[in-house]
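Progress note, sequence design subtask.
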């Protein structure tokens, strides 16, 4: 799982470093294709079949722009300075899965950032969603429950502002399959599966500048906000060991952020 997570982390770094105005989302996806080939890994997105008569997913990334929440299909769409781009990517190594997402404000071609009220609002949303991811990670502990994670995500977003918390899509267990039990909602629930040693969890808050209502476009994949508001999406695959937390889809295993937050870093090996 850690090897798969490192493929994901490094590819996401390459994509976020490369993104700039004037690129197409297809060109961003091509970076991920190259990363998979270089790592001798395979894609868990490409060809994914959800059933219900929906065609298999046609790319190795999900690239969602502005009011697109998740599952945006790479295309010839050109990115513009100030766009809010969510990059979701996964990989399989030796039959085990990694899955993570990052959201970025698209810089100009010379690296400068747009400075407008719209872009500032997108930036605050993005920071709040990332913070809620780490709040959820920090709430995971052996003997705790999935609802501890869900509650921490919601509390973090509620403290940050009046953001919509998407309810129709959740985090999930992960391992030999990309999507496994248990589901991990991003809002407070009662009960919840216990967190046991050996479980791997993909925690992935999705938040909006409006409300939580979403719809799926005619391509059967792209999820958008009904009210047209922008959305951000962050995700990491983690596990909880007897020593602490291990973020499998961060290059450093999450050590720097966990230590900054005063949380135990507990890798099995690295």
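Output:
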């Amino acid at each position: 799982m850690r090897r798969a997570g490192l493929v994901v982390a490094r590819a996401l770094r390459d994509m976020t470093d490369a993104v700039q105005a004037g690129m197409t989302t297809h060109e961003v996806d091509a970076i991920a294709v190259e990363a998979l080939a270089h790592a001798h890994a395979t894609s868990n997105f490409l060809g994914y079949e959800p059933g219900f008569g929906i065609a298999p997913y046609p790319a190795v990334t999900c690239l969602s722009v502005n009011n697109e929440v998740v599952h945006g299909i790479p295309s010839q769409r050109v990115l513009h300075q100030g766009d809010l781009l969510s990059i979701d990517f996964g990989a399989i190594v030796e039959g085990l899965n990694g899955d993570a997402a990052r959201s970025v404000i698209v810089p100009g071609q010379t690296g400068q950032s747009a400075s407008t009220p719209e872009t500032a609002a997108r930036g605050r949303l993005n920071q709040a969603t990332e913070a809620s991811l780490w709040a959820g990670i920090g709430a995971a502990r052996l003997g705790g429950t999935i609802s501890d994670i869900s509650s921490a995500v919601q509390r973090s977003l509620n403290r940050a502002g009046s953001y919509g918390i998407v309810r129709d899509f959740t985090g999930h267990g992960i391992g030999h399959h990309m999507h496994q039990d248990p589901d991990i909602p991003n809002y407070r629930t009662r009960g919840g599966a216990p967190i046991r040693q050996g479980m791997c969890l993909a925690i992935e808050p999705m938040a909006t500048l409006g409300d939580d209502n979403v719809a799926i476009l005619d391509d059967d994949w792209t999820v958008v906000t009904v009210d047209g508001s922008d959305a951000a999406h962050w995700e990491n695959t983690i596990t909880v060991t007897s020593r602490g937390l291990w973020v499998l889809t961060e290059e450093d295993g999450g050590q720097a952020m966990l230590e900054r937050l005063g949380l135990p870093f507990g890798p099995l090996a690295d």
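The mean pLDDT is 96. Work on this subtask will continue into the next period as scheduled.
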